[in-house]
Design a protein that fits this description.
This protein is 56% helix and 19% strand. The chain contains 18 helices and 18 strands. The chain has helices at 2-18, 49-54, 166-201, 204-223, 226-230, 234-242, 244-262, 269-292, 301-319, 323-347, 359-399, 404-417, 423-449, 454-479, 488-503, 519-540, 574-577, 581-593, and strands at residues 22-24, 30-32, 38-42, 60-61, 67-85, 91-97, 104-109, 115-118, 133-138, 143-159, 161-165, 485-486, 508-513, 517-518, 549-557, 560-567, 597-601, 607-613. Strands 1, 3, 4, 5, 7, 8 and 10 form a 7-stranded mixed sheet that branches. Strand 17 (597-601) and strand 18 form a beta hairpin. The protein is elongated, with a radius of gyration of 42 Å.
Length: 616
């Protein structure tokens, strides 16, 4: 007990001699050191540790938790602090220098004369922490004085010191890096999403926005220190820092093109011309500052000018009732809040990071989300435009029935040009065409009922069947979601069912349909099927005792379609039947519409083979 009292007396006496000191133990996980330290500014940049330690240099007390010197290449900052271990155990602490951008940091241990280096240009190869750190050890009842020599001749000098309990520090560091990884992951996903939007819409606004997001990711990887630790070799860092103006300018340059495209700046010719000229000379101005180190202190001035002009454009376009500009303006305000937070923190005016450490990351995520909303708004407006087109088309169709034929041709041309955007309108059109054809068929049936001549009545039935074949196609198109292709089996079956109802033949129909058809091919094949099956119904099976069979095949080998229709009837003489209107129609459909060839075999029934090349 006497020994402990003696050690405490020595410890207390030493504390008085060395002056201001900081008592530490393991009960507090984090200490803020700067406000309990002392500072000396070496304007000569020539004093060594030995000179600082032996000369009677007057250090000044610090009353702030953070010091910001801005761009400070002309002096060194010396920080002096003393740590006291008032416990009877060894203490292990982590000294964190909370700024990853300071270039040179050197720690001097006055008791052991050891020197430890860290900082942006002398990163410890074993460090995997975002900020520079130093491991400190205090023996029981030991007091140690440390000096930090800090200089930064390229980046801004911001000084903030934290003393951590080891486990607490690494726990917070893991949490901090995990949050940053989530941020970079979210930004990367947003970039990929907008890239796919560009591929689908071909809207250059989203391509420029993708470049902006990747620019933000590149800049922020450097700003928070992740890039220097995990991505860059130490030999690259100084070179990358010299190019920092390019890294800062890249996202703003991309965002300028995005803003120009997104708000359609061409509608404001004078403002658009000014921006175009500035964007042409902007890379040369930035390169001049970077490559010559000319006015290095103001190396980002041209980027700031571009940024301010873009804000002005967003405000101007908003005043002109430009809907897209509202989103741009709000996005700019969010980014400005994040950027102002970075600036105020770096100058020491207001340390917003103390209360909300991830305000910049939050600003970037909010801005990206805002533009996702802008995309949804744009899609919604396009949908409303489509609905308006539909309504105008229906109203025009109803008001001009007397010009139906000419109107159908004009609308068909318009629908071909807007096919991908007007799916709903086409389905409605198919439904109406099908109803009109059914009306025509009903009129033909009524007229046929008043005719006593069997030949004329047969002509009416033939016309009904031909119209009915096309009507079934439009009915299927109305029912299904895909209006570019048709289920050939379902379509052929509906055509045959209609024919069987017309001719009341007890003939077995067998299908082997293996492919789908596009709409144009389906129309031709439906009419061909109608003509050939009608011929079989009317002429192939005159003997009711015959077991009539009709086979229908449709398949594809490589890029050739094969369409076979055969019956086991009595056949016909091709020399006497070749000029019938039905076969003429079939030949015309095959050669002119399908661009194919037809072969007819009349031995042992009739077998018709049609083949054509798929040009889809």
């Amino acid at each position: 007990m006497t020994k402990n009292k003696f050690l405490f007396f020595i410890f207390f006496f030493t504390t008085i001699i060395y002056g201001k000191s900081i008592s530490v133990d393991n009960n507090i996980s984090q200490y803020e050191l700067l406000s309990q330290s002392e500072i000396y500014i070496d304007n000569t940049k020539s004093l060594s540790f030995e000179e600082i330690d032996t000369m009677s240099i007057e250090f000044q007390s610090i009353d702030k938790t953070q010091l910001s010197f801005g761009y400070s290449p002309d002096f060194n900052v010396w920080i002096k602090f003393t740590l006291e271990n008032r416990t009877n155990k060894d203490l292990f602490k982590i000294l964190e220098y909370e700024n990853s951008m300071t270039t040179h940091i050197t720690l001097f241990d006055t008791q052991t004369n050891e020197v430890f280096k860290d900082g942006l240009f002398q990163i410890n190869k074993n460090r995997k922490t975002v900020n520079p750190i130093f491991e400190l050890r205090l023996k029981p009842y030991e007091s140690k004085t440390y000096y930090l020599k800090i200089s930064s001749y390229i980046t801004t000098m911001i000084i903030k010191l934290n003393l951590w309990e080891v486990h607490s520090f690494y726990r917070e560091e893991l949490k901090h890096q995990s949050i940053l990884e989530l941020f970079f992951g979210a930004m990367f996903i947003l970039a990929v999403y907008n890239l796919f939007v560009y591929f689908f819409t071909k809207d250059k606004s989203y391509l420029f926005y993708v470049l902006y997001i990747f620019g933000v990711i590149s800049h922020h990887l450097m700003y928070v220190g992740i890039g220097y630790i995990y991505l860059l070799k130490p030999s690259w860092i100084e070179y990358i820092i010299h190019l920092s103006s390019f890294i800062v300018a890249l996202p703003i340059f991309a965002l300028a093109f995005f803003t120009k495209s997104f708000i359609s700046l061409r509608q404001y010719p004078k403002l658009n011309k000014i921006l175009e000229i500035y964007l042409w000379i902007f890379p040369f101005l930035v390169s001049l500052f970077v490559l010559t180190d000319f006015l290095n202190k103001y190396r980002n001035i041209f980027t700031v000018i571009l940024l301010l002009y873009l804000v002005f454009l967003a405000i101007y376009a908003s005043l002109k009732k430009n809907r897209q500009a509202y989103f741009i303006l709000v996005g700019w305000l969010i980014i400005l809040i994040g950027g102002m937070s970075m600036y105020l923190s770096s100058t020491g005016v207001l340390n917003i990071y103390k209360h909300y450490p991830y305000i910049v990351e939050t600003a970037f995520i909010l801005e990206a989300t805002l533009f996702a909303i802008a995309l949804a708004d744009k899609i919604n407006r396009l949908q409303k435009e489509k609905e308006n087109i539909n309504q105008r088309f229906i109203a025009q169709q109803e008001s001009e029935k007397e010009r139906l034929t000419l109107e159908v041709k004009n609308k068909t041309r318009d629908l071909q040009e807007a096919l991908n955007k007007q799916t709903i309108l086409l389905k409605e059109l198919n439904h109406r065409v099908k109803n009109n054809m059914q009306t025509i068929i009903s009129l033909l049936r009524l007229q046929a009922d008043e005719v006593d001549d069997e030949q004329i009545e047969g002509i009416f039935i033939t016309i009904q069947n031909r119209i009915n074949a096309m009507s079934h196609l439009h009915e299927l198109l109305y029912k299904q979601a895909d209006i570019t292709h048709i289920n050939a089996h379902e379509y052929f079956a509906s055509v045959i069912d209609g024919l069987q109802n017309s001719y009341e033949n007890e003939i077995d129909i067998y299908y082997d349909i293996q492919v789908e058809l596009d709409v144009e091919q389906a129309i031709s094949c439906g009419l061909i099927l109608n003509e050939l099956v009608v011929n079989s119904f009317k002429y192939a099976f005159e003997d009711e005792a015959d077991n009539g069979i009709i086979n229908i095949e449709l398949y594809k080998e490589k890029d050739i379609f094969y369409f076979n229709i055969s019956d086991n009837g009595k056949g016909y003489n091709p020399t006497t039947s070749s000029h019938s209107f039905g076969l003429t129609l079939v030949n015309n459909l095959v050669t002119n519409h399908l661009k194919g060839i037809i072969q007819i075999d009349t031995n042992k029934g009739v077998k018709t083979q049609i083949k054509w090349k798929d040009n889809g």
